[in-house]
Design brief:
7-stranded antiparallel beta sheet; 40% helix; 17 helices; homodimer; 19% strand
Chain lengths: 451, 451
């Protein structure tokens, strides 16, 4: 008996959309509305526990869009819903993305209302991307924006992703590793995520390995013989007793090299100090201490502040779901159609019409001092133009895509240029100035009055 | 140029594991540790904002495990890590799950420390499932457990899933629909999720459709002509003005039938009352009111309490990430190996050794009055035995798998039997009694003393 697939493959993704996208597409098709449109992707409000978001996933998504389409099986299942005409479905079978996609390079810090992607394409092409673009870009941006705080808190100590088991499903766990790499984590326990996204694999052992052996010391010995320089998990029964057994093992078998011990419960700061003392007293300053268990940026900052002798942090749950800010209120809004600015009136919300560009200004030392959101072709705006054309006429621009590969280096550079106030963990937004250009401000008020 | 895949297909899933599972497997293989083991899946602590969890996804995952394996490309990429011996990888190429999996039927309310899956298999088979089982089962359980609260709050009014764009990636959005179906939602906007998991599709229109037309009334007319009985989104410019335009459209073109208007911003209760009054005054009591925008169980409960005339709720963000409880602390623990009970000592935590069964007692009216966690084969325990063998010798037990299909009916039945205290939204756990059987209590204390 053949089972239906469990996971979602690339060929399924054109149907990963809200029904209304397809019913609107059919209406546009029937009405002959095929003029060029621009949609802008941005978020309205920074979560209270973030000072900036780290844009991530947008080039990855753009790459996917250049090969999106509908196969016969998909068209047949749409026909079965009874909501679509055969001639529309025939047209949908030819649907390809032929437009342009402008994006901020991945790893760029981004603030409220700043466009981080703009899509220029015939209306039906740009409209259809809406649900997918928001789902895909939100995930990587939310995860990277949380992870960069954890990395900042660790102040140079390596941080490892242990979050596979708590992240929301298959895709979150695998693409999450891509976001972690961008944000500066040092490794991951997630085999598929690490292999696919070029992140070093890292692993220790589980309590079950200890328990399957009749004796903890025997389990340590067996594992260390298999894996030189491995990490031994010492808290199955009693953490410091576990450390003593590791010390005894190294004494009894001097040829065995142990890389680290891992603490996974209890008062990590206190246990790390006592474990360090035991290891040093036994002449093993080279054995490192890995700590995990309920860590997030706050707990890590407290351990670093207290000078706990922890060399590596393993972080899972809280980072993996970004529990304090699991969503951002991304919008993907029609801002221009058929050459005319479009603007939804929303009391208390900023909606900005027309194709835009984002400029970032630096001071003499290269530090960011403020941004300007401007019209795409508006002359005379100071600063570096950040939105770049990643897709032109439905084709990837290879030299621009290459920027995504260097995202990690971009984050390191960006963090060095970011005002210190934005790198603090505490709530509060750090007052980074984001202005509208004169022409955009003018257009915004005339468009509002016209509606 | 061929691009790497974007999403994760079924054939990738055996590598969706933590590195240590594979290094432990190699160690077990080298040590000849192939005795039968039992691992138990349970959660330790109910989130403060839940009174029960709705077990979901465990039969779905079990089905996947019966066809999991490693292909040559996967083995080659593992070889490239340099951590695995060729003879081990050859053995891994033959890895299949040949054991038994006991699960609670999907849609069963489950409480702290209750086993909701137990895996009995040779050690290397049961161990390898750990990371995947936790990732897969957590997602559906977390989403279903949040969604059932939203359904309870709506008191019979249909709830639609609008969450695709905010959920954590591709897999969360698609399998989330499966959890929503189990929890009792009435439909989803998510095309792929709905088609794959048998949930009715539901859709309205987006603001961009209104804005792409030069005039809101013209947009309503065009859409209603395409789609009889559709839902028109009335808040693009001014909600009540939008409703008036719908009324005027129905007056001017009496042949057009409008199914509903959708409110998506502002004071939903007040706007629903005013919209209802406008529609009724125009002789259109049949036009329904759909409300969306920032809804969760609390806001819906308040609207229902205030008798807001809302017929259908569309719910996205908060339900889609279960923002108040995005994770549960699932554990998958070795509880027996080679016929011997295994127990990790954790101060303040309940760990229960050996193969188990879960019994639920009913009163004379069929209401649940308490549970007992017992040894699998312990005689004389009162109540219904809930863990059932879904997989036997690596094969699905078809009559048991059929139970998963009826999960929705099981939830309706379970909710009718659940004490009212457990169905309230407020924090607090409702004091549902979960006891340990005499033999389990005895074994637990002797196992603890033996270590």
């Amino acid at each position: 008996m053949t089972q239906p697939p469990y996971a979602v493959a690339d060929t399924d993704l054109s149907l990963l959309t809200d029904l209304y996208q397809l019913t609107m597409l059919q209406a546009y098709w029937a009405e002959g509305m095929q003029e060029r449109a621009t949609f802008s992707l941005y978020y309205r409000r920074l979560p209270t526990t973030r000072r900036f978001m780290l844009a991530c996933g947008q080039q990855h998504a753009a790459e996917l869009f250049t090969r999106l389409g509908f196969n016969d099986a998909q068209l047949a299942s749409l026909a079965d819903t009874g909501q679509f005409r055969d001639d529309f479905l025939a047209w949908l079978g030819q649907w390809r993305f032929t437009g342009d996609i402008w994006t901020l390079p991945e790893g760029t810090p981004v603030f409220e209302n700043e466009p981080f992607m703009e899509v220029d394409a015939p209306l039906a092409e740009a409209q259809l991307l809406e649900s997918l673009i928001m789902n895909l870009v939100q995930l990587e941006t939310v995860i990277a924006s949380k992870a960069v705080r954890v990395v900042l808190a660790a102040q140079g100590r390596p941080v490892m992703d242990f979050g596979l088991r708590r992240m929301h499903g298959i895709d979150a766990a695998v693409r999450g590793v891509r976001a972690y790499r961008t944000a500066g984590l040092a490794g991951t326990s997630n085999v598929l995520g690490g292999l696919r996204h070029g992140m070093p694999l890292s692993g220790t052992m589980a309590h079950s390995y200890i328990l399957a052996h009749d004796d903890e010391a025997a389990a340590f010995a067996a594992f260390a013989r298999h894996y030189p320089d491995t990490t031994l998990l010492v808290d199955t029964h009693d953490t410091l007793e576990g450390v003593r057994k590791v010390v005894e093992l190294m004494r009894a078998e001097p040829s065995l090299r142990v890389g680290a011990v891992r603490l996974d419960s209890g008062d990590l700061g206190q246990l790390a100090r006592e474990a360090r003392a035991l290891l040093d007293a036994a002449g093993h300053p080279e054995v490192k201490i890995v700590a995990s268990s309920g860590l997030d940026e706050w707990r890590i900052a407290a351990l670093v502040e207290a000078r706990a002798p922890i060399d590596v942090f393993g972080v899972g749950t809280e980072m993996g779901v970004s529990s304090d800010a699991p969503v951002i209120d991304l919008s993907y809004k029609l801002v221009e159609y058929a050459g005319t600015p479009r603007l939804k009136h929303s009391p208390g919300k900023t909606n900005l019409p027309c194709r835009k560009q984002l400029y970032r200004r630096h001071d003499a030392e290269g530090r960011y001092i403020g941004d300007t959101i401007a019209l795409r072709d508006e002359p005379g705006i100071e600063g570096e133009a950040l939105l770049r054309p990643m897709v032109r006429g439905g084709q990837l621009v290879q030299e621009e895509m290459a920027l995504a590969v260097g995202a990690r280096e971009r984050v390191i550079d960006s963090l060095s240029r970011l005002p210190d106030a934005l790198k603090r963990l505490e709530a509060g937004h750090g007052d980074y100035p984001v202005d509208l250009s004169p022409a955009l401000e003018r257009l915004r008020s005339t468009t509002r009055n016209a509606i």
